Amino acid sequence: MPGMTSDSGDHSTSVVPISPNPQPTTFPLNHGLKPPIARLSISWARGNTLRVTVLRQPQPSAANGEEEAGGKVLEVKLSDNRDGEIDDAQWRRIAYGSVTPFALLQSRKNSTSTLSKISALDSTEWWQYIMDYSREINSLLGNPKTSPSLAIEDQKTVLKDVQKPTCFKAAWELMEIFYADQHSQAWIPERLLDWLADYDCLFSGTQPTVHSELVNFQKELVTRQAVEDHPKYWEAISSTLAIGWLEIGVKLLRLHGSYDFDQLGSRETENGLVEAVAVLISKMPRLRADLGADKLGECYKNKPDFVKAWEKWQAQITKLDCSAFWLQCEHHQTRDGLKNILQTMLGNSTSLSNATFHWMELYIAHFLYIRPFTAVVLAECSKSFGSWMMAHAAELLTAGNIQAEMLLQKEQFQLGGICIEELNRLVYAQVLSSHALTWQIAPIYLSSCMKQGMGLLETVLSKQALQHDQVLLKSIEICRLYELGTVSSNLMKITAVHDWKHGKKGSGVFWLQQARDEVRLNRIAKHLFDFVGKSLSDGSFKQWEGLIELLGPESGIAGGLEFLNKYREFRRSLQQVHSGTATDAAQRAAEALISLMKNPSTPQRFWLPILYDSLKLFNWAGRPLLNVSQTNVLLNKLQELSMARLRPDFVNADLPPEALNSVRLAIATNLGRAILEE
Asked: Are strands 71-77 and 418-419 parallel, antiparallel or unpaired?
């Protein structure tokens, strides 16, 4: 699978980049045996598991009479599943599930002519194909997640406990937003807000995030009474609002102590300010296609209406920020916290920066509309997500983007003349073909690689374990689908030779016939002819009769299988005569005899044994079975045989000494009876 472009040994020219100093992967082997270790035996177990047998050297029994273990069998799981995020079985499900949408999209793409390709890529129908492809791939990467939102059951629970998503699904959806979903272009900020609500928890493993801060703060809420006295409370609200989690921000605001029944009288102004901010948050204009029932804000589907509403909303925030009621608020933590929240809502860059923890949160907070460069996205995908993402995400990156498509499909000299898109598919096909459970879907991706795909497909097929019937049949089917007739024929020949050498001669002949290998079939036919021809006894012939029947009369060597097949038919007719007295059966046997003796493929050394076996036909009691002309044919054969016996190289048949005279007498008798009959 993708190999070197030259034999120079220079890794810089390899199709698949090879690290000059690869770092070996270490797997623990805790066998617990004391040295010395004499032997290790390693074999494959199920899946990606090695079975390792550790054997110690024989040791004398311990002084206390206890014998130490002489060995141990362990299983070591080999895995490259991104720290266990997706297990091996799930990876195989993803690999198999990806085949159909990928192949369908390639078929639709290839059906578009070169001249109309640009217009087709801009069509609504093509964008729908891309989105269908993206949704099918996305569905393989995990189930839809519930966004961080209110938990109604517990007043102080601000985040629901949901199953952690995968990085693959997060990356795929992000590329879909920017590159594939045309309908989301008008409201990318809102799509990004939803995306971050689902996947911000993934960043928590390496750095602080709004999600992780909320999780930590939620633990403190259980024990805190007056939450408004603590800076983390106001920081949490500002952070949630900065990245658009309005529902959580409003719920946190309404945990403010001024909402307590016993506080309403003395903190009326403070409570009014808190509620005013909460209402403004709830009325935030949102430019998006729709807004769920559990989402706060007011939905606008077109930009002009949204801009008007946004300006009005910002004016209301500014008016509240300049209100005289702030002077009447005696709780300075509340006053400062609410003021900072208003600045966040007004888009103050310093407030947004302070409220977020990493660039993605800040990017979304600023509503940046800049697409990352395609090359950068490719590099990040390759480094973080591996070959599967690279092979499938290219369709999103190039959707409607001619420049990105040119980048991916430009032939690269340093890659041996193939393009980046083909390289990604070749690498992924290499991964698939290296596993016994996924190799059969590698051809889908190799067939889409115009430069090296078909050549590498031939290599993949030739390296399969063809001694297994299911593998062979699948390989032949793949060859048929991709019109690899020569490869299919070679696979059949390899299987035939293997089966013949291992005693499965019938199977070997069958696959040679399927491969139409006349050369080897004729060799086998000659081998059979030479073996059977040494003696036409019942035992030697029955041993090979099934194989002769399987070979059929097609093999065209002179005096070969054509004779053996005709002889087989003659013997069957003769056996019917011996088992009964029917004249019709005897007549058919006589006709088979004449046909066999007239046929030029019948070797001369077999004439006498055949005639000797037919003595009963010559002496048939009812009437002569052979007419005068047929009897003369047999007499001529006997005359030729008598002349041939004079040659020094003549080999006598293994028959009784009187066989020739018995045959001559019987034929002469039949001739006389035939003359009288006529």
From this structure: unpaired
469-498 pLDDT tens trace: 788 888 888 888 888 888 888 888 888 888
Closest CA to 427 of 418, 244, 249, 8: 418
Say if residues 535 and 651 touch (Cβ distance below 8 Å): no
> pLDDT digit string (tens) for 439-466?
888 888 888 888 888 888 888 888 877 7
What is the dihedral angle through the alpha carbons of 98, 101, 104, 105, rounded to the nearest 10 degrees? -100
CA-CA-CA-CA dihedral for 241, 246, 249, 253, to nearest 10? 120
CB atoms within 10 A of CB 196: 26
| 43 phi and psi angles, rounded to 5 deg | -145, 160
Q: What is the pTM of this model?
A: 0.55
CA–CA distances in Å: residue 632 to residues 281, 344, 513, 621: 117, 119, 40, 20
Q: What are phi and psi of 41, to 5 degrees?
A: -120, 125
CA 302 – CA 454 distance, rounded (Å): 50
**Residue 170, token pair as written in the block:** 């997060």
* % of the chain exceeding 70 in pLDDT: 77
What span, in angstroms and rounded, lies between the C-alpha atoms of 488 and 296?
63
The two tokens of residue 92 are 């195989």
- H helix or E strand, kind and range, residue 75: strand 71-77
Main-chain dihedrals φ then ψ at residue 210, nearest 5 degrees: -60, -40
Q: In angstroms, rounded to a whole number, what is the distance separating the alpha carbons of residues 85 and 392?
A: 19
Beta 285-287 vs 71-77: how paired, if at all? unpaired
| Residue in the structure block whose two tokens are 């059979």 | 528
Instruction: Calculate the CA 64 to chain-centre distance.
Output: 57
Q: Give the CA distances from residue 589 to residues 99, 162, 654, in Å, rounded to whole numbers and listed in that order.
A: 61, 85, 23
Rounded Cα gap, residues 382 and 362, in angstroms: 24
| DSSP secondary structure letter of residue 14 | B
Q: How far apart are CA 166 and CA 378, in angstroms?
A: 19
Residue 616, helix vs strand vs coil = helix
Question: What H or E segment, with its residue span, contains residue 418?
Answer: strand 418-419
| Residue 419: φ, ψ to 5° | -95, 170
- The string of pLDDT tens digits covering residues 281-327 is 999 888 888 888 888 888 888 877 887 888 898 899 899 988 888 88
Token pair of 541, please? 């012939």
Is residue 13 pLDDT above 70, yes or no? Answer: no
Single-letter amino acid, residue 221 = L
C-alpha angle with apex 611: 557 to 582, nearest 5 degrees? 110
Question: Which helix (H) or strand (E) covers residue 77, if one does?
Answer: strand 71-77
Report the pLDDT value the prediction gives residue 4, as an integer from 0 to 100: 35
